[in-house]
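Pinned message: reference record for tRNA-splicing ligase RtcB
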Amino acid sequence: MVELVKVDEDIWEVPQSYKPDMKVPGRIFLSDKLIKDLEDGSIEQVANVATLPGIQKYAMAMPDAHIGYGFPIGGVAAFDLDTGVISPGGVGFDINCGVRLLKSDLKVEDIRKDADNLIERLYHNVPSGLGSESKLRVSDTVLNEVFEKGARWAVENGYGVKADLEHCEENGEMKGANFAKVSKKAHERGRSQLGTLGSGNHFLEIQYVEKIYDEQVAKAFGLEEGKVTVMIHCGSRGAGHQICTDYIKVLEKASRKYGIKLYDRQLACAPLSSEEAKDYISAMAAAANYAWANRQVISHWVRETFNDYYKSEIKMDLLYDVAHNVAKFEEHDINGKRVKVCVHRKGATRAFAPGREEVPVAFRNVGQPVIIPGSMGSASYVLVGTQKAMETTFGSTCHGAGRVMSRHAAKKEVRGSEIKKELLEMGIIVKAPKDSAIAEEAPEVYKDIDDVIEVVHRLGISKKVARLVPIAVAKG
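Predicted structure (tokens):
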């Protein structure tokens, strides 16, 4: 196993000499404390990614890194458009798994006594759990519109307002999506799941702003201490999973066809200029759009639930919606030149600096909102994108706390009923389809979110704006 080289505070390097085919070094961003939890397999995956054709600068892993499929979760890698590749393993199975934050005018003291009833209603109104099915009945024609329009389909059909679109990465609609590149099986899996939370680490959480770190940016974001927020974390459901599964097979063949040496078959990929890559990109964009529509529909039902409960119109504006699992074409400065590259973020969050045209006009003077969920029982954070991120990580930062224990191991070692009781004693109400769903997402199976956030804040690849504390959680 390679010995990591500490090149600066919180920055560790996998030397390019570790494997003969590494085209760039690896960079892992971790504190001395967090590096003790990093699995050897994650380091190996960073080194493997560094062998892929056309990779630029570094193969990177954020502080929440852990082992994933091919690429580590928390991985970031950018590829040259002429010599580089795209890999479904660098995007992940849950394409555009992401998170959004609704900010309300309610004060925490206004809802404490209502939290149990509110989360019960949210749990009832937003279908969740493994294989959960939607309240919507979606025809093939409608589903194709969802794949191509994303959140815009939802807003055009009454599930939100136009301002929601302006506050989504890519305006909630990735260009180039083509439903014809999505298999029949992916269509079938997606048809019944639009507007569902799903399972695993997906959740819907009522929170409040406990602390503001940057008054100026918080004001621009519309965040105030003591105000209630709702965080929604989910992705493209079975449709995205099936699209990834389908195209891994296609790109495995493409890897052989184009003579790409793979240290791990899970890194199956194709040259960005190839037909196989273009087809995957079109299908990936369709899955990303499905995910944005999914979160938009759920947001609508969250707003309806609050309005119905309080018998009045509750202000619940969308702060921002960020993607965690996606590959995008972006311009970055490399070796003194502005070039377009394909950036893979797999369990990582875009964190663009002030002035970038991709940042909504409302935030362009301060930078992109970065929303980082914690685990049940721990805080979540709102940060802001920075110029340092543009220079260091292709405008990227972490996406969460990062696991230290697999779901399988968690269900063996942790009792969900006990976790639920402990959280209740902390003032946090949890609703879940079954206790095992709580066990596999228990706070102790994750790194300490405060430690992870301190690393990205110290590095300057995103800066702290606000800390959010959970009140009630509906688990998928």
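Pinned by admin. Summary line: The chain has a mean pLDDT of 95.
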